[in-house]
Amino acid sequence: MWATQTLTAKDTMSRILIAECKQEVSTFNPAPSRYEDFRVVKGADLLDFHYNTREEVGGALSVFDAAADVELVPSYGASSNTSGGVLAAESFNRLLHDYSSAIATARDLNTIDAAYICLHGAMQAENENDPEGALLHQARRILGEQIPIVVSVDIHGILTDRMLQLADAVVVYHTYPHIDFYETGVRAATLLLKILRDEIRPVTARVKIPTLARGDEMITATGAVGECIRKAQEIEAGVDGLAAGVMWGNPFTDVPELRSNAVVVMDGDEEAAQTLALDLAQRFWTHHEKMQVPLASLQDAVQQAAAVAAGTVVMMDAADATSSGASGDSNAILREALHQGYEGTILAPLVDQAAVEFAFRAGVGGSFRAHLGGAVDGQRYRPLELDVQVRSLSDGKFRSESFGWPWDAGKTAVLVADQATLVVSTRPVSLFDRSFFYANGQDPRHFDMVVVKSPHAEPHMFADWCAKLINVDAPGSTSANLPSLGHTICERPIIPLDEGVTFDPVADVFRRS
Predict the structure, then answer these.
(1) Which helix (H) or strand (E) holds 273?
(2) Could you tell me if 321 and 347 lie in one domain?
(3) Residue 1 lies in a domain
(4) Is 8 within the bounds of a domain?
(5) Rounded to whole angstroms, how far apart are CA atoms 103 and 73?
(6) Rounded Cα distance, 143 and 163, in Å
(7) Domain shared by 389 and 259, yes or no
(8) What are phi and psi of 452, to 5 degrees?
(9) Are residue 304 and residue 444 in the same domain, yes or no?
(10) Whether residue 199 is found in the same domain as residue 337
């Protein structure tokens, strides 16, 4: 329901505004993102969407609905259908305008007592290097300086000074791969209610860590970073702990405040917040040398795959990870496999609108000469000419295996060229599970080589059953070979872009009251 009708003893309700804006981009993807790439819901539709989706807002709603003295005021929700390139200036301007207008309308119709704003943290626009800070600035301008605002963000978000100055508290995911969207919303809403009821006085300490991290050690359940997450959870469970976490940003969003961060929110205890944030940061730094990905060259990766006698080899192509902002049109692994004469069967995803249009004209069972790959990022990938047959066609709409989220890849075709089966979409979608393959009738277990365009997936998706998993050093705008990307904006020096980086931790304090 939209609003709880029970009144408090004071015959009044606390009205909490709900807003959302989430996108993750790669600066190095040459194709800009646009407003049309977002799922936008306004007013009551924002609640209707999230009551059926286990994301952060849904978790927050479960807390607010359980409070008899809370009335929800939904405003604006925008979430990109997948990650992509830098948001075009006109699209960011429209996004900011629509978001601001919705909040202003909500304020005009209601007395707003608090706000929960769900962000990702790794946006970038052509005309704004701190979009989340700009969004929070607009919320403060419209709603005023006095009301509490709590923000939730992704571990891969960029945490800027402006965000910390404008929010009363920031709540960070605790898992990677991410499985605690809903739980993060619960934590954020619980904290906001405590502020609203004048039970706590949040104070935040943040420590900057000059590291960009990737790789298996960032898997929170099994990697070295798990020590930091468990400590953060311990802090939150303490008497005065309100929120804690580490954020290692999105290394592909090249903005001035890109880095890793340790952040701790305590109830009034500035000294404890600083001490605990410094401890979290030091734990993170202790493991920083492990926090990179051992990569196999394209040539070596295919040779390793060919040497596997039985079972499926998973080729992790994190360099073209659409969930991290890549274009999805890399054919690099396929090209190398064909060049080496790899004899096994291959399954690979690809974004190529022109090839899909040809497939729809040819129809199921039809054949044509295709030029596959490099349709978006022509600087990195050359089209590969193959004679293909159309196996199937679809509208590209399906639900993710992981969370049941609705995804739309646009018109999609399954094309077969000798031993290679390509699932080709019009638009990129996230590929951190198997749903794109399944939705188009392809089971990864039935192939000798599967190209997975994601840095990680939940273990049961691929790692637990495949014969071998290889992290491939392929070209791409989300390559784990970070020095190869060409950062020009982020603060330097930083690991692994520079040599001889030292860590001199300082705990900066942020407090709104």
Answers:
(1) helix 270-286
(2) yes
(3) no
(4) no
(5) 9
(6) 16
(7) no
(8) -115, 115
(9) yes
(10) no
When pLDDT is cut at 50, 70 and 90, the band that residue 3 belongs to is: very low
Residue 347, SS3 per DSSP: strand
Sign of torsion, CA 444 449 452 455?
positive
Question: Is 501 part of a structural domain of the chain?
Answer: no
Whether residue 322 sits in one domain with residue 196:
no
CATH of the domain at 216: 3.40.50.2300
Residues 305 and 257 occupy one common structural domain: no
> What predicted TM-score, i.e. pTM, was given to this entire model?
0.93
Give the whole-angstrom CA distance, residue 182 versus residue 58. Answer: 6
* Domain region containing 319: 296-479
Which pLDDT band holds residue 157 (cuts at 50, 70, 90)?
very high
Radius of gyration of the chain (CA): 23
The structural domain count of the chain equals 2
Q: How far apart are CA 374 and CA 370, in angstroms?
A: 12
| Model pLDDT for residues 416-454, shown as the tens digit of each residue | 999 999 999 999 999 999 999 999 999 999 999 999 999
Among 146, 192, 147, smallest CA distance to 169 is for 192
Largest CA distance in the chain: 77
* Angle formed at CA 218 by CA 296 and CA 263, multiple of 5 degrees: 145
Helices (H), 119-225: 131-143, 161-166, 181-196
Question: Which 3 state secondary structure label does DSSP give 388?
Answer: strand
Task: Count how many residues are written for the chain.
Answer: 513
Report the DSSP pairing between strands 346-351 and 468-473: unpaired
